[in-house]
Structure formats: C-alpha cells, structure tokens
Amino acid sequence: MSFPAVRLRRMRKDAFSRALMRETTLTASDLILPVFVREGEGVREPIASMPGVERVSIDELVRVAERAHGLGIPALALFPVTPPEAKSLDAAEAWNPDGLAQRAVRALKAAVPELGVVTDVALDPFTTHGQDGLIDASGYVMNDETVEALVKQALSHAQAGADVVAPSDMMDGRIGAIREALEDAGHIHTRILAYSAKYASSFYGPFRDAVGSAGNLGKGNKYTYQMDPANADEALREVALDLEEGADMVMVKPGLPYLDIVRRVKDAFGAPTLVYQVSGEYAMLKAAGQNGWINEEACVLEALTSIKRAGADAILTYFALDVAEWLRR
Ligand code: PBG
Q1: What is the pLDDT of residues 261-303, one digit of tens each?
Q2: What CATH number is associated with residue 48?
Q3: Is 13 within the bounds of a domain?
Q4: What residues make up the catalytic site (predicted)?
Q5: 102 CB within 6 A, ligand 1
Q6: Which of 56, 47, 90, 94 is nearest to 76 (CA)?
Q7: ipTM (interface predicted TM)
Q8: Alpha carbon of 203 to ligand 1 centroid (Å)
Q9: How high does pLDDT run on average in the chain?
Q10: Annotated binding residue at 238?
Q11: Engineering a disulfide at 160: which of 105, 114, 131, 165 sits with its beta carbon 3.0 to 4.6 angstroms away?
Q12: With helix as H, strand as E and coil as C, how does 114-135 read?
C-alpha cells in the first residue's frame, strides 16, 4: 500500500504540536489603543459608525488608560475631538499648550506614567476645511508652511510629556524638520512614529465621523498628499526617507488590505514597523459580528495575527482592550 512520505497533518492533530510549531503569536504587548478624547467631565459618548468605541473626556480617558495598562497594553494613541469654535484656517489650536491633546497628555503621564503616550501630529482636527495642512487660495495643501505648523504642534506635544509623536499628515520633509526641532529643544528621547506609507483610503470614514472632520472635509479628498492605493514601490521610498530623516518607527496604514506593503517594508528595512488597523476595518468586523454573520472574536484575532505574520511589530487597533481581555482567558 502506498502512503504519503510526509504527512503535514500529523503536527496539526493535537493542540500541543500545533502550539510547538506556531510561528506567530499575538500578545497584549503588541497593541496600541487609539482613543478619542473630547472636552467635558464624566463623558463617554458613543460613535455611531464605530459601535463599542467612545469619545471620552480626560477624566474618563485616565480610567481607560489604567485599564489598558492593567491589561498589559504598552501604549495609547490620542486623537482629540476639537470643538468647532476652536477650528480655524491656520489651525493654531494644534499647538496651544493648553489644548485638549496637551492637557490629555499631562493627565495621562501624571496618572499612569509607565504607559506610553503617542500623539497625532496633523492639522485635520483643527482646520475648518478638514485637510491635514494649511491651504492656499486654490485649496491646495501647502507643504512647507504646513511642516512649520507641524513642528510647532509636535514640540507642544513633547513639552506636555508625549513619549511618541506620530506625524500622520504625509507632508514631505516633516520627519526631518520635527526631529531637528526636538533635538534643538532638548527633547532627545521623544520617539517619532512616522505614518510613512499612509494611503488615501476610504477605510478612514468612521474615524472622520469620530473626530468630527468629515463635515469639514465634505466632498474633499486627500489625494495630493496621501498615497495612491495602487502603489507599492512608492511606499518603500516614503519609508526610506522617513528613516533617513530620523523616524524611530514607521507605519503602514490601513492594515489588512496592505499586508504586501507591510512585508516589503519589513524585509527591506528591518525597522520597527507598525500597522494601523483603521476605523473602517474595525467597523466592518464589528458590523458583521453584531449581525451574527461572523464570529467577531475569532475573526479579529485572525486579522491581527495575519498583520503580525506579515511583519508588523505592533498594531494600533480599536479592539486592543477586547483582545487583551480575550488573550487572558
Ligand atoms: C488624520 C488621520 C486619519 C486617521 C488617523 N489620522 C484620517 C485621515 O487621514 O483622514 C485614520 C484612522 C482610522 O481610520 O482609524 N490625520
């Protein structure tokens, strides 16, 4: 009787042998929790397009941070929801030392100092038009003028105590400019997480609802600065530049539709590579789970494990708290 010389199913038969040959493991220490912070006290406001995610006031944010820290999540990424009256054409609220993001950073570092705090460096929560930068008369986002504003914003975050500043704007040259300004100001330990390969993705829709920039942006788009989803080589050029300019970590965003980019970036540079599982990815998994069309927990764990398998060192995910709880069991 003939038989296969190699039977790959032998190792798959029992949990013990599956565990022994598992190549990728997901742990709470791989996760960064993005949090939307708003003004007020004792506020937890649901976001319609992201069931289970809330906009929280600073006092509630501290509770979220304590919970995340207790679950072994290393860091939290802050996204401020700016009240309409604080938005302007010059986005000056972005570097207000007493702005919402800056106050939130101080509160977090006072309450849970060991938890890493990542801040978003970009102007879209602060502009009346919802673009990530300053615009000229034609509506074009001006590069170098925007970089000057981003430098002021990043410095104000570092001053407030942010551990990591994360430029998500995709202007040319902003990493170098921010790095130089941080060094000049003595912030030599502030890490830069560069959103290097950030695509002009339609999967950001729920995020724009969450921070309230969707209405400002209207029918506008971000094609003149975020990357074309059709491109891959260009992502490697972006990553190379950001690393040369002094980025400590690079990011690919969104996650699941861009795993080929993650793999290429990791293989080409071997640098700390993060992935953002974005709001639209969250919304899809959540909606299908809530409808009973998929098993939410199993699908979320599979998606995140796949992102790690593709080469990610860490993942920003709105599921971070749930995942950390699931992995405990
Ligand atoms: C904007 C910013 C966006 C996200 C993070 N920072 C949206 C955009 O570029 O329009 C998206 C995150 C998500 O969808 O979860 N600077």
Answers
A1: 999 999 999 999 999 999 999 999 999 999 999 999 999 999 9
A2: 3.20.20.70
A3: no
A4: 198, 253
A5: no
A6: 56
A7: 0.97
A8: 9
A9: 97
A10: yes
A11: 105
A12: CCEEEEEECCCCCECCCCCCCE
